[in-house]
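Revision sheet: structure tokens.
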Amino acid sequence: MLSVVENGLDPQAAIPVIKKKLVGSVKALQKQHIISELEHLTFVNTDVGRCRAWLRLALNDGLMECYLKLLLQEQARLHEYYQPTALLRDAEEGEFLLSFLQGLTSLSFELSYKSAILNEWTLTPLALSGLCPLSELDPLSTSGAELQRKES
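Predicted:
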């Protein structure tokens, strides 16, 4: 899901500004106690870590579909920060993502969201979102065939 959110971010825009405004949008979707919990996690201390923790909490609480619907309704903001080819700007892709997430609501998740490992990006989600060339991936951790399947 994080790759979906990162897909098609406008490289010409200032990333810190985008992060701040997108985090503001996410905060607007949240109840205050969740925001407070995310901001006070002991081992999660980066914006990336808090975003990844938020995604895990959303899955744990069964609210990912709801949050994506709200995010997709922010078309003016999405147009401002995303390239025209971004998944979140494509209405058909947005509907596909929502239908995919509907299937997840019947599942129960208990994902950890308090780990320091959430603070750093790995290359795989960056490559899948188009922010890092596939050639930079470690060939021992991910094969090109696996990436090809995920892209189609």
